[in-house]
Amino acid sequence: MVKIKNSVARKKGRKRVFRLTKGFYGQKKNRWGQAMRALIKALRYSARDRKARARAFRSLWIVRINAACQSHGLVYSRFIKGLKAAKIEINRKMLAEIALNDAPTFKKIVDIADKAIPANVTRKKVPAKA
User: Fold this and answer.
1) Where are the domains of the chain?
2) Which residue would you say has higher pLDDT here, 121 or 11?
3) Is pLDDT at 41 greater than 60 in this prediction?
4) Minimal CA–CA distance to 71: which of 128, 3, 122?
5) Residue 32: which residues within 8 A CB-CB, separation 6 or more?
6) Are the CB atoms for 106 and 70 separated by under 8 Å?
7) pTM over 0.85
8) Do the Cβ atoms of 110 and 69 come closer than 8 Å?
9) Closest alpha carbon to 129 in 71, 76, 68, 53
10) So what's the pLDDT on residue 123?
11) CATH T-level topology, domain 55-116
């Protein structure tokens, strides 16, 4: 019986790892054991940091929406409550873009949200900045 070796698959796997560790510092890019450890750690960090980046962007969008709402005399939480009452489903990313790039449209959205806030909710208004 002929002995079958696994060299093709092994080379393919190592090639993939070394391609992913290209650009790493020192021996982490070209020594198998160190490259594997560095790659596993790097992939773990990248997964963690993707989540962190998403959280950071969401908070940035909320800050932008809040600033735009306050310039129209409404607080962020009331604005979101009004949007839900008016059944307007726009995500925060798009609201932030509209607030930043299209002020008249955002003003209309704020007016709709303000009118849709239920009457039993106190309408705490922020003095509008001129």
Assistant:
1) 10-52, 55-116
2) 11
3) yes
4) 128
5) 14, 17
6) no
7) no
8) yes
9) 71
10) 56
11) c-terminal domain of poly(a) binding protein (1.10.1900)
